[in-house]
User: What shape does this take?
Amino acid sequence: MSEITDKEKHFVTPGKMRPSQIITTFGPGSIVNFEKDSVLVKGIDFWANRDNYIQKNHIYLQKITKKSKFMMPYVSDKNQICISCKSFPQWGYCTKNDCLLLQRHKPSPEKMNDRGTFFCKKHPWIPLLPARLVMTCKQGHLDEFPWAKWAHGSQKDPRQICADGELRWMGGRNSTSLGDYSVECSCGAKNSMNSSTSPDGIKIYFPDGSSEIQKCTGQKPWLDSEEECKVNDGGTEIPIGALSRSTSLYYSKIIRGLVIPSLCHPIIKYLQSEDYEKINKLSMFKKLSDEEKAQELLDSNPTWVEKNYSIDDVLSYMDLVTERPGVAQNIQTELDLKEIEYEDLKLHKTFDDTDVNKDLVIEDVELNSDEKKYFQDVRRLTLLTVLEVQRYFSRLTPPGDVPTGSKTEFNKMISKIEVNGTTIAGRKYDKNDWLPANIKKGEGIFIVFNDDFFKKFSNDFVNSRLKSMIKNKENFHEKSDWPSDDFVNEKYIFLHSISHLFIKQLARESGYDEASISERIYSSETMNGILIYTSSNGSGSMGGLVRQTDDGILNILTEALENYKDCSRDPICLNTEPSEMASNGIPLHLRQNGSVCFACLMLPETSCEYFNKMLDRKILVDIDNGLRNYLNHE
Assistant: This one.
């Protein structure tokens, strides 16, 4: 669909999506295949009915992203639209067997009926199927596949591109693989699709014996923009052909933030409300000193005085909300945010949000003497709120955590979800003060291990496997275009693996499926914890997860180790050696795990915070050297 304003009443909609999909799998810049058309989700500048969106504040996420708010797309009327999109790719082929004409259709449909959205120009009653390929590069640019060039540029019989030739999508009789298809022109030119997705680029041959690699066009159709695609040597990035349904076409970079006790305080909620925003705009209020402002707020909120809130309390929360001179604001990454969450959750053994629309309720779990050998704290979060925010996305390579404000080579690989400039048509869009988000409420279990737990559990066997995995990860990042994640170390692998083990076990007993449970790993020199929480908008908080702690957290762990000591792919899975992966010819991107597969510890994509990487079951279940052995002999 073309750009849509709030005043337009008539539009064609290809389908519907859930809020969680809009910032993950099908966010701005992604290709979504609906029943009757393939569309490209446009940038947030073009989204409609924003007054209906659900707004949420999270002061720490706001500091990291440098935005003032986050909004979850929502419409109250089912006939209203929310997300703007455009048909892409705009090439399609006729589904009539004796036609199969490959043709470019209009950018936007005039109408839609039960048969389809776009129709063949020779057979107006026959719908078109979207073309299978698009062209993209590592810098995220996206364009139509050069069908005419490809049809006439075969290595065996290159020909000049004809002016009036008709292209046809042929093949598919023997198999559905891309190599079984070809593009044929009415002039007799023909080229197989066999090498159309080569990582070396789209190579076009000419009748004079020369050839060239297709150059990147720098198109950003989701933003109606374009730019020059540059690399360090002065040329352009080599674009490749990619299947429009390929998952590598879109990797969303999501940052998550838990609503913690300090963010539920009445003072900070008021400082982020519309009432305070109105007061803060008054000229008389602006002239006051910070201390005078704090006193004024105390005087206007009698309940704060009843709760013994002081001027210092108000000033401390003003420090969080506003960047006052002389106040340090050192939070830049999600790891910084995790440090804050970890300390706040440890500090509050119990907590009950006093707001009508509660965000957080915490209950302490009393540990017995055996559990205290391994665990420092366990909390039941009978109600929690998690905010998921999309910052940017990448194509072909999963994104690392790159500060968007820094001028590094890695920023070229980041694709933005807002224009913040001028479109091809000359329309200017200013930088937005918001990012799209998804608000999830559920329940969770916060587990803190003793500070010396990992050190006591480790041995030569465990350390050897973990060091080999770290080396494999570093080798991969040396070859890729993203910086290495510094937070991933031996402790992280252990906590990540044991987190997956807990999720697997809790899914068996709690009533939630694995896809509805997520993890948050707290790993650093000062952190030794995990948060297991429900993440499904539909499931909500039913209590099934937190009730599992009634049987004791140690019992859950020992049962999990027993249940997952075997895998249906054993002994192949369990005997996988990270140190031997390179010599066994395993590709670099598949060397970032130890003994793990989807039959044992791997989880659905929505549940894992690190792409199902850096996991090892053997360090947990090995009867001689793993965690199972350590617990049995303690």
Notes: DSSP finds 16 helices and 27 strands in the chain. Residues 1-9, 324-328 have pLDDT under 50 and may be disordered.
